[in-house]
From TrEMBL:
Protein name: Sorbosone dehydrogenase family protein
Database matches in InterPro entries: 6-blade_b-propeller_TolB-like (IPR011042), Beta-prop_PDH (IPR054539), Quinoprot_gluc/sorb_DH_b-prop (IPR011041)
Keyword entries, A-Z: Signal
Record carries keyword tRNA-binding: no
Length: 411
């Protein structure tokens, strides 16, 4: 009698699924994955999985005219340099009077850029603050708030766009580790929100403020954890119509080319978004098991899963809801996100600006908005994108911290 291997495999698979072995099987997209990965609920059974990991960093080439001219932008738009020779511009903020600010974490400065003749090109640049590892920027009640690794400062804004002497509000944020880039904003409730990334790729954090978003009063007092289980949420904001808070979280590295996808999360007080144990649409991280007697399934039950996901390793950075008047009406209240680009993937992804469509206040899909920063058959790049902001004239600004350029998209 001949054994039918495929039939036997089916029987065994069904038996395993129906038995009380007490373990879950994660990342099972096809039959082969089923036989390759076993992630039990507890450590009474062995965990086994195999992941292929890659490091590929495209070479850096200049942002010269030839490269910039071949950029692709959505139909009806054009893209050009707003400013260059800026060092390493990161997060952007724009005042109600049209002053453009950019942080440079490595230089420890905040820059002011002005376009005095309104031709879409900055004609003046000056340093307006010197703060070690300055990164996050936001403007609230005509004051500039600046977040560094451990500190938050506030400075008065003068009529000419310069800043007064920064005043220290917070000096004891957790140490940075792998993700030191804090971002900051004020919500519709008048509260200060601060992102604090994880110190590692995936691990239990000894400091409960790491891998979180914090909330505090306007003066920095009363700080507490707003949401946790967030590996590194750089970009976040509030939908202009619903007031709901949304953010994009960075996925875990070293899970393979297509894992962990970047997450779009609706951010709510007290929610746990799963990191480092649960990721994506409820998958188990084989390298990190919930502590104590908690099983993966129990942790999953208290995890808030993403509303939408995006290509793994794209590295979402600053995010801005569009509130300008230059773009067509259908762009209103959608969000733009800077995708910095991959390094932990065999073929590079990201290196672009994307549009996140919202329908009835909820994110539904992504479209490419500006692409072409990968060149030479994807072997090289001339920008890794970080900051995104809407200018008062309705154009979209975004920053690159590799060639020191801020770009402008206009109609």
């Amino acid at each position: 009698m001949k054994f039918n291997y495929r039939h036997l495999k089916t029987i065994l698979k069904s038996t395993l699924l129906l038995s009380a072995l007490g373990f879950a099987i994660a990342s099972c997209d096809d039959d082969d994955d089923f036989w390759d990965a076993f992630i039990p609920e507890t450590d009474k059974e062995p965990t086994t999985t195999q992941v292929e990991g890659y490091v590929f960093r495209p070479a850096l080439v200049p942002a010269d005219a030839a490269n910039v001219n071949q950029l692709k932008v959505a139909s009806g738009f054009k893209v050009a340099k707003f400013a260059e020779g800026l060092g390493k511009p990161r997060i952007l903020a724009v005042s109600s009077t049209g002053f453009v600010y950019a942080s440079d974490r490595d230089a420890g400065i905040v820059m002011l850029l002005t376009d005095t003749n309104k031709d879409g090109v900055a004609d003046d640049k000056k340093t307006v603050a010197n703060i070690k590892q300055a990164h996050g920027l936001t403007i609230y009640k005509n004051k500039m708030y600046i977040a560094a690794v451990n500190e938050v400062y506030v400075a008065d804004m003068n009529a000419n766009g310069t800043l007064g002497m920064p005043k220290l509000l917070i000096d004891d944020l957790p140490d940075g580790g792998q993700h030191p880039n804090r971002t900051i904003a004020f919500g519709p409730d008048g509260k200060m929100y601060l992102t604090v990334g994880s110190t590692c790729n995936a691990c239990p954090e000894p400091n409960g403020e790491n891998a979180t978003i914090l909330i505090a009063n306007e003066d920095g007092s009363g700080r507490k954890v707003f949401a946790k289980g967030l590996r590194n949420t750089i970009g976040f904001g509030w939908h202009p119509e619903t007031g709901e808070m949304w953010g994009m979280d960075h996925g875990i590295d070293w899970l393979g080319d297509d894992e962990q996808k970047e997450e779009v999360n609706q951010l709510k007080m007290g929610a746990d978004y799963g990191w480092p144990y649960i990721y994506g649409e409820g998958k188990y991280n084989p390298a990190d098991r919930p502590q104590g007697d908690t099983t993966y399934q129990q942790y999953l039950q208290k995890t808030t899963l993403p509303s939408l996901t995006y290509q793994a390793h794209s590295a979402p950075m600053q995010m801005a809801f569009y509130n300008g008047a230059m773009f067509p009406a259908e762009y209103k209240n959608d969000a733009f996100v800077a995708m910095r680009g991959s390094w932990n993937r065999s073929n590079p992804v990201g290196y672009k600006i994307v549009r996140m469509h919202f329908e009835n206040g909820k994110p539904v899909r992504f479209d490419d908005f500006v692409t072409g920063f990968l060149v030479n058959s994807n072997k090289a790049h001339f920008a890794r994108l970080v900051g995104v902001a809407t200018h008062t004239d309705g154009s979209l600004l975004f920053s690159d911290d590799t060639n020191g350029v801020i770009y402008r998209v206009s109609k």
